[in-house]
Write a structure and sequence with these properties.
The protein has nine helices and five strands. By secondary structure, the chain is α/β, with parallel strands linked by helices. The protein has one domain: Rossmann fold. The mean pLDDT is 90.
Length: 186
């Protein structure tokens, strides 16, 4: 299957690192991690993990040929629209994402930052703005295994029609729910 360059992005903890290699294998494509590329080029700072996206954007060009699945939360800020054929944004219910990040050992402020970003769809919105509605899809990774989610990603990639976007804000429609979600208490 000639897939070109497929992008997989989403808030940290949504499943990119688990799902992208499975999708790449099924498509017969290379799998490229933006985080690994940034680290290998020394573009990520040790203290904060921040990445110089301008320099990474310049470096990624040498990898953008043939069939590849490129994944990372920085995708909309690094991968140019002209290089990508389709993008899938992985989404996760914010309460579940909070627990995933806690288990990974993220600090309280990083958990809140990422849960807020997922709640309001920051990366999703940036992906849709960068790549457009016809090339961008969302997949909810909340409750299934990486293998099942890879199948859902393949279905999303094959779907030629625009689909409704995920909106977690409807589930957090009160101040009490939002305070509980964004609480840093364990």
């Amino acid at each position: 299957m000639d897939s070109g360059i497929i992008g997989i992005t989403g808030t940290p903890g949504t499943g990119k690192k688990s799902i992208a290699p499975i999708v790449a294998e099924r498509l017969g494509a290379r799998c490229l991690s933006l985080n690994e590329l940034a680290t290998s080029y020394g573009l990520a700072t040790r203290e904060s993990g921040a990445v110089d996206t301008k320099k990474l954007r310049a470096k990624i060009n040498r990898y953008l040929s043939g069939n590849a699945v490129v994944h990372g939360h920085l995708l909309p800020y690094v991968l140019p629209p002209s290089a990508v054929s389709k993008v899938v944004v992985l989404r996760c219910e914010p309460g579940v994402l909070k627990e995933r990040l806690r288990i990974r050992g993220y600090g309280s402020s990083k958990i809140v930052e990422n849960v807020e970003a997922e709640l309001i769809g920051v990366i999703s919105s940036d992906a849709f703005d960068t790549y457009g509605r016809t090339r961008t899809r969302e997949v909810d990774t909340t409750g299934a295994s990486p293998v099942d989610m890879a199948g859902a990603v393949e279905v999303a990639l094959a779907n030629p029609r625009e689909v409704p976007r995920i909106d977690w804000t409807l589930d957090y429609d009160s101040g009490a729910k939002l305070r509980l979600l964004l609480s840093t208490a364990e």
